[in-house]
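Schema walk-through. Below, the input block comes first and the output block second. Nothing else is stored per chain. Lengths vary across the set, and this one has 809 residues.
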Amino acid sequence: MKKYRELSYKELKRYIDPSELDFKTTEDLEPLEGIIGQERAVKAMEFGLNIKMRGYNIYMSGPTGSGKTSYAQSCIKDFAKNEPVPYDWCYVYNYSKPSNPIALRFPPGLGKEFRDDMNELIEYLLADIPKAFSSEEYEKEKSEIIKDYQNKRDDFLNQLKEKAQKLGFAVKMTGAGIYFVPIVNGEVIEEEDYRNLGKEVQEQIDQLTDEIQSEVTETMKTIRNLERKARQKIEDLDYKIGLFAVGHHINYLKEKYKEYDRVIKYLEAVQEDVLENIQEFLEYEEDEEEAQPPVPAALMPFMVKSIEDVVKKYRVNLFVDNTEIKGAPVIVDFNPTYNKLIGQIEYDNEFGNLTTDFMKIKPGLFHQANGGYLILQAKDVLNNSYSWEAIKRVLKTKEVTIENLRELMGLTAVSSLKPEPIPVSVKVILIGSTYLYDLLYAYDEDFRKLFKIRVDFDSEMDNNHENIKMLARFVHGFTKRENTAPFTADAIAKIAEYASRLAENQEKMTTRFNSIVEILCEASIWSKMSNKKEITAEDIEKAITEKEKRSNLYEEKMEELIKDNVIMIDCEGEKVGQINGLAILDTGDYRFAKPSRITATTYMGQSGIINIEKESEMSGNIHDKGVQVLTGYLGQTYAQEFPLSLSCRICFEQSYSGVDGDSASSTELYAILSSLSGVPIKQGIAVTGSINQNGEIQPIGGVSHKIEGFYKICKLKGLTGEQGVIIPYQNVKDLVLKDEVIEAVKEGKFHIYPISHVDEGIEILTGVPAGQKDENNRYDENTIHGKVYAKLKAFYEKTLEQNHSKENN
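--- output ---
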């Protein structure tokens, strides 16, 4: 009595009836906003965005093409709209420490105003300072100071002259100083005449010289004090005039920005610096420029100081401008280098010299995203040197310090600025694979502390009416975005079936929407080439077929080799110890099944089961495990009363690239049992499925591809109506077969058998019952198990006889 069943064509995929969809074309629906089938991820993202505590940054994991990046951008932008606009930031000159520029914070929009106000102040300074110092009042007051000084100086010098004359000296005034020449008998004594004077006269002159020299010292000291006081008066006058020209402008700004203490302090420093360097403004009056001496062009950068060099330190570097932003910023980047993340200081090369200033400080991604969100790809971050460390440092310290990368790398440091760090509050969203998440979580302790929210995207979603309608709305969004024709209901049904095939499950659909979009794009082109106004199921089918044709060259070459019997595969007849197994080949963008002939030979011996692939180092660990399971099954089933005396070799014939996986373990068992029992296996039935030591069949992957692969070979060599595939019963829900295969099953030309135990497969493959033990714990000799048991027992007895014979000899 038959103990196995055969699948109906209705079980080979989930059919979606377009008439059950409540729309005719996608134009009848609203475009999708959001994401489909990721309820877990959506909830995690909402929670992660709402929690503002330290360390609750987000890592989005999941398969490539599932829409993580698109969802992150749209979701976060919607969330950020309702958050406050962050501060503006400006860098300004530090008058006390020029190498450490100061960071000033402003409400959004005010930073730009402050920059413009300071630029306007500079224009006022350039115009008002020269004007104030060219006034008659200033010149008159300055002249009076100078005149007063000169009069007093002349009075002291005249007094010195009179005293010198009384002491018998003539006074000579030169640019080098004051000289006294003695007068003897009414005549001026020169140095040569002095030597001819008598000793008493010389001593008298020397004594008088010392006396007058003392007077000179006191007089010159007095004059220097007068000069110093005069200079101070002029400086005070310049300060007063400068303050008059500058003060009301500065006071206006101080009043405007009175709520910002650091700005007030900075403006006071600006005022003091302007007044201290007031002469620099006077040197660049327009009417005096022509009076400057000509300078060779080659020496201009070194010798000529432009007016911009004078006023540059009063300008403002508008570092972060949030004037145009609505809500919190959302920054997305796909090349997060170290300098791009934390900002950098640019340099100019002037005749081989690197120069920089606070105006060349440029913001990084963290500065731009400050107060908002920074979305990065984990792979991009890890591929850039020092970027990951920079991100962790910013998240831990909550501030961004612009540092020279050369110093971090241990290279010679270039003299540079060290801008004041800017405090930041940024939520970082890393998007990457599950593999990278597991790697970072296992090997980087900081990752666990800093990225506490995981938004995990599933690779599949339920295949139900609601999700199909959501898929249709997604397609409508695609048509609007790409300006294509609408898709009909039957086209959506075909897309849903394709999504189910990608998920390899009748009850699921894939969430890798990039694969869906590829078909949508290509179907729209095929429809356009046919001058259709709507995209139909026919266009979807053609897009899928043509996409496969572009990638299935290797599969076609394999089929040619099988057709020409270069690769030997039998699809009809019966053979002992030979069976067709099914393996999956993956070429990257295309997967297909390759039938393989598996053979087993058995004979007396003690070697047990020998895997030829393993002996030739072409077998993977999982395949080796599957072979070991077979030994367990044989011992459990047949060696309860005597030990196994068996040598067996199993082989994937014409396999040159290696074998791995245990999905052929049941197939190998059937070949072994056929060899031991002598009962042939139907070559028109291929097998897939792994086995455990109790003989239970376990599910495998790629079942649809495996069935279709063997069907193609059978069709190539001629369908007989007796061909088919044995699969694990657990894989029935994974069947999403092509319509051609389903039609062949419907017409009885091809068969699919789901089984749960090896005994069911034995009967299908051999037509002989597997056999059950009777009350005496014996198998019927006309069953496969009975025949195998008898063969193994005969091996054992013959081995026992040979051992006795050796002992007797």
